[in-house]
Amino acid sequence: MRIIDSHAHIFDSPGYVENLINAMDENNIERTCVSGLGKKFKCMDNQGIKQILGQYPDRFIGAYYIRPGYNKVEEVQEAYTQGFKMLKITLPKKPYDDLNYFPLWESAQILKMPILFHTGVVTLLKPAKQEYISSWYMHPMRLEPIANSFPKLNMIIAHLGVHWNEDAAEVIRMKKNVFADLSGAPMGWRVRADKIGMDHYLWWKGAFKKIVFGTDVFYTQITQILKEDMVRLDKLNIDHETQKLIFSGNILKMLGEK
Ligand SMILES: [Zn+2]
Question: Average pLDDT of 169-193?
């Protein structure tokens, strides 16, 4: 089965890219969608990602990092021209559904760039005292007005909302163009959700067809996360066709490759 990791970041540590490629090879991961979140998250920035895309065009899909309220709308077109195929959004100045940000979403829709939205509580290495950062601004329900206004824009709710799992699930159930990933660190939100039963949240027929595989961990943890995902899907008797959508079909379709 083809595997594409839809959610990963390139950390700013020596040899990270090579180590990540080794981890991808070990786990049979064909390509990874990568973004740089900059110093705040000990990551590379967009320029670093651009270089990596040039070096390894067959292994990485670039997600350009945008902070609504801080980046200009023109950057979306520029990123596309530079070879980025997706956007990664987090830490907005105002809520995601603020009307001031609609030109960003419109631009992404025109360029057919799917958007990966961070949702749920945000973990910063250091509190950003100079900025007003609110996880409420990143509630999954904030994507509802965006999904309504831009029905051809594909969106991914990262981490199924972390702790807002029910709300995130409801958005992907109701909105055709909204998907979710179950990415997250070992011992993170997934432990609670698995204990309750991921199918408690994703309860309707075909719910798992709205999931895309993503890791969002340091390269050393990829093997564990992928294994946990495969075990979970088998335990829940998710059929092979749905698993194909999760591990590659959905993201390939969003990227216009199928
Ligand atoms: Zn992430």
Answer: 97
